[in-house]
């Protein structure tokens, strides 16, 4: 919300400069987000009066004006404004002035005619964004006086960032009331006198939806002057609060809303038919709003209607058909109280957010409606003339909110605030906030002000005391915490440690939504039926993910579209599976996705795309934390998302812990990815349990290494060969490495060669050659008999 500082100070003016005032408001919870001058510096810009005007001799669209700028001083100015007339008072930039757009005013000749200044529009002065002619000043403007003095431009706009619960401060009255309570300065609202009726015409009001609109006030103002214009002072106040001038009647309703906080609307009386009905919409009704948008009204929406048709969306926006215009002569003012819940949901359902709905959905003070009509009547009569009718008021009091007294205990306040505030200060603070306070036992019974919808409990009252007393004055008390050292188990790995390993290996952690597009789910895991949401946030977030790959792949696509070719991501989160019993299984998973080069660009190594084995090494590094690295087994597998020949299930012993594989080329193409992506997923519960470290004495005796090259069928898994060697070699084998794989010349088609390195050692003696050969012979024999593997010649 934007507000003029000078307007605010008319109601309450503490002895604080602008920044100190903003600081006090901010510290009381009404954050001042910005302070800006209402206009740029306008030196040497004065009020001028056109005393004569003749056509330019050499230009059809220009006029030669004689302009009085004070003290009998008259200057010549060439002007092309269409609205320039003799007797008009307008801003004049004198010689030497610099306008906000950078133009420096100099004495010059325009097509042979001397010009010693410039008649200005509001846009040229930086007051408005656009303007169609010169800024017309009032009759009270004296030639020669500075424009800053006449328009009172020594003012600032305060931008207040209010929290949703403080709708009562969306007005000058509300902010002034708060500022008076904060500073203790007297609150001086303008006196609103009743305007007596001059005729008897009235419009009947029928409350068909009294629960949602229990109070409605209306008044006819007849015979207004259609040619009247909004005075400059009102235009300026509206502008300084972020609104533009539209029409005198509309400007008056906006002014009252900004001043008092009560949204209003005005209908062209001659366009109404019969009584005003406040009712709920029926099926099939349509309405064209003031912004020109035609809507199909949702049944149940709160409407303002007459005997024949809907006129407005109650509390949100009026209709085009009954809007006031340049020919309007008779006006019907409306001012109502709407239940906040009736406006909030409806405004959002139509995708509309207006100044009125913003206030109504937060709550407007009940009982303010009649005062707002009286104020609007007074202002309109001063601008357009006219004859006011009697005020018509319909109220169903049982549906209006009532303030319920709240018990405030002194002991409770002291405990929550961490300090004792004197009883007289507590009472004074609450009374300054407009609350009724009476003594009750060891505390007070407090009735909140009608405009404070956010004060409902004892803690709300205590918060108000702290806010007005000053948060910065409350003592800082450290909480008492029992410091107990927690044992750290060596048999458990933390998720933080897993994250650190992946970050050290150049991964970035991401957090994606648990909700995904059902089409993505069907593409990435068609074998599993996901859990569908009954009321999804959006159509592309309608299913619960069954694995974490969907979010990771979406992130890969997002990054690729922004020219990020090397991406390494991981995520820790829940996957959701529907059980046959009807329950939901939530499994915490760690998943990763890798694409691009294996290493960042460098001079030491040539570029190489990341592959299956690079990612397998990252997975092994994770499992090595728990001591499972050497026990990891990869078994060929099939998965609809992954490449048929580059997919593996990951096992520790006989327990499956996850999957690893390259994204299927078909899926890669469907996602628009230009590089292969390697994916993995692990069950967190299976990799957090670590093998407790056990000490083994290092043997003093030498180790013996034997290399063995074997030729076998190409389909024989390397893991099967390693398992066989480990089983046969027994306890003497302390290390086994697969260091080469070969296919090509010298090897028959359909076969491959694997080279193994066996390290043998005994902890109690030195092995002799015969013992080593016996182990090697047994290994070769077993490999040949079980796997058909023979030594390579």
Average pLDDT level: 90
State the shape.
Answer: elongated
CATH superfamily of the largest domain: Phenylalanyl-trna Synthetase, Chain B, domain 3
Q: Over all CA atoms, what is the radius of gyration?
A: 41 Å
Number of contiguous helices: 20
Read across the widest sheet, the strand sequence of neighbours is 26-29-30-34-33-32-31
- Amino- and carboxy-terminal Cα gap: 87 Å
Number of strands: 38
Strand content: 25-35%
Question: Strands, helices and their partners?
Answer:
Blueprint: E1 2-4, H1 5-11, H2 18-27, E2 31-37, E3 45-55, E4 63-68, E5 74-79, E6 89-94, E7 108-110, E8 113-115, E9 117-119, H3 147-150, E10 156-161, H4 172-183, E11 205-207, E12 215-222, H5 232-240, H6 248-260, E13 265-268, E14 276-280, E15 286-288, E16 294-296, E17 302-305, E18 310-313, E19 317-318, E20 331-337, H7 340-349, H8 355-360, H9 369-384, E21 387-388, E22 392-395, E23 406-409, H10 410-417, H11 423-432, E24 436-440, E25 443-447, H12 458-469, H13 495-504, E26 508-509, E27 515-516, H14 518-524, E28 543-544, H15 549-560, E29 567-578, E30 584-595, H16 612-625, E31 632-636, E32 642-652, E33 655-663, H17 665-670, E34 677-683, H18 684-687, E35 704-713, H19 718-729, E36 733-742, E37 751-760, H20 769-787, E38 790-791
Parallel strand pairs: 11-14, 26-29
Antiparallel strand pairs: 1-10, 2-10, 3-4, 3-6, 4-5, 6-9, 7-8, 12-20, 12-21, 12-22, 13-20, 14-17, 15-16, 17-18, 18-19, 23-25, 24-25, 27-28, 29-30, 30-34, 31-32, 32-33, 33-34, 35-37, 35-38, 36-37
């Amino acid at each position: 919300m934007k507000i003029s500082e000078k307007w605010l100070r008319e109601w309450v003016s503490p002895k604080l400069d602008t920044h100190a005032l903003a600081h006090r408001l901010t510290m009381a919870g009404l954050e001042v987000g910005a302070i800006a001058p209402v206009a740029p510096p306008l030196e040497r810009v004065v009020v001028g009066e056109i005393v004569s005007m003749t056509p330019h001799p050499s230009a059809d669209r220009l006029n030669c004006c004689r302009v009085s700028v004070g003290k009998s001083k008259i200057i010549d100015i060439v002007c092309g404004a269409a609205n320039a007339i003799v007797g008009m008072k307008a801003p004049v930039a004198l010689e030497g002035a610099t306008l906000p757009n950078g133009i420096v005013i100099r004495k010059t000749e325009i097509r042979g005619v001397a010009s010693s200044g410039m008649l200005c529009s509001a846009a040229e002065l930086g007051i408005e964004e656009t303007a169609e002619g010169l800024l017309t000043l009032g009759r009270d403007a004296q030639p020669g006086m500075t424009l800053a003095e006449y328009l009172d431009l020594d003012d600032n706009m305060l931008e207040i960032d209010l929290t949703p619960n403080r709708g009562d401060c969306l007005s000058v009255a509300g902010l002034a009331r708060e500022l008076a309570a904060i500073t203790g300065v007297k609150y001086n609202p303008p006196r609103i006198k009743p305007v007596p009726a001059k005729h008897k015409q009235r419009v009947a009001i029928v409350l068909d939806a009294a629960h949602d609109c229990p109070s409605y006030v209306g008044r006819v103002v007849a015979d207004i002057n259609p040619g009247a214009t909004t005075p400059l002072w009102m235009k300026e106040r509206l502008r300084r609060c972020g609104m533009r001038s539209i029409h005198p009647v509309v400007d008056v309703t906006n002014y009252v809303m900004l001043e008092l906080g009560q949204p209003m609307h005005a209908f062209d009386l001659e366009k109404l038919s019969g009584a005003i009905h406040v009712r709920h919409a029926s099926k099939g009704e349509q309405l064209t709003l003031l912004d020109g948008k035609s809507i199909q009204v949702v049944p149940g929406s709160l409407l303002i209607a007459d005997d024949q048709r809907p006129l407005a969306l109650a509390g949100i926006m009026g209709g085009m058909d009954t809007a006031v215009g340049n020919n309007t002569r008779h006006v019907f003012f409306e001012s109502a109280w709407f239940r906040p819940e009736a406006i909030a949901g409806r405004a959002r359902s139509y995708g509309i957010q207006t100044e009125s709905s913003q206030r109504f959905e937060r709550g407007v003070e009940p009982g303010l409606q009649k005062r707002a009509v009286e104020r609007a009547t007074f202002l309109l009569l001063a601008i357009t003339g006219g004859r006011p009718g009697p005020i018509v008021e319909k109220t169903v009091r049982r549906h209006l909110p009532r303030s319920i007294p709240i018990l405030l205990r002194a002991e409770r306040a002291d405990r929550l605030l961490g300090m004792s505030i004197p009883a007289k200060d507590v009472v004074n603070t609450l009374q300054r906030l407009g609350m009724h306070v009476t003594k009750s036992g060891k505390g007070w019974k407090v009735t909140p002000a009608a405009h404070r919808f956010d004060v409902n409990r004892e803690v709300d009252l205590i918060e108000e005391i702290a806010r007005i007393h000053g948060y910065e004055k409350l003592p800082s008390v450290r909480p008492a915490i029992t410091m107990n050292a927690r044992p750290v188990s060596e048999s458990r790995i933390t998720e933080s440690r897993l994250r650190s390993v992946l970050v050290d290996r150049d991964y970035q952690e991401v957090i994606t939504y648990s909700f995904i597009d059902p089409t993505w789910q069907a593409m990435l895991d068609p074998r599993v039926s996901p859990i569908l949401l009954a009321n999804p946030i959006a159509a592309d977030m309608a299913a619960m993910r069954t694995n974490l790959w969907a979010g990771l792949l979406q992130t890969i696509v997002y990054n690729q579209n922004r020219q990020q070719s090397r991406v390494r991501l991981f995520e820790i989160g829940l996957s959701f599976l529907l059980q046959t019993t009807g329950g939901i299984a939530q499994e915490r998973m760690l998943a990763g996705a890798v694409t691009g080069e294996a290493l960042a660009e460098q001079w030491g190594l040539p570029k190489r795309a990341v592959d299956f084995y690079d990612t397998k090494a990252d997975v092994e590094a994770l499992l090595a934390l728990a001591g499972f690295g050497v026990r990891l087994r990869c078994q060929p597998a099939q998965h609809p998302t992954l490449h048929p020949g580059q997919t593996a299930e990951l096992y520790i012993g006989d327990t499956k812990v996850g999957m690893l594989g390259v994204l299927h080329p078909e899926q890669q193409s469907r996602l628009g990815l230009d590089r292969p992506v390697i994916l993995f997923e692990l069950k967190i519960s299976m990799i957090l349990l670590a093998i407790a470290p056990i000490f083994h004495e290092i043997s003093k005796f030498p180790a013996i290494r034997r290399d063995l090259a074997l030729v076998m069928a190409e389909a024989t898994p390397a893991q099967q060969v390693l398992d066989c060697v480990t089983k046969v070699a027994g306890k003497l084998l302390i290390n086994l490495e697969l260091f080469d794989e070969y296919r090509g010349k010298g090897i028959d088609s359909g076969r491959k060669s694997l080279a193994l390195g066996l390290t043998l050692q005994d902890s109690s003696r030195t092995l002799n050659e015969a013992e080593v050969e016996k182990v090697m012979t047994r290994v070769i024999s077993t490999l040949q008999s079980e796997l058909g593997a023979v030594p390579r010649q």
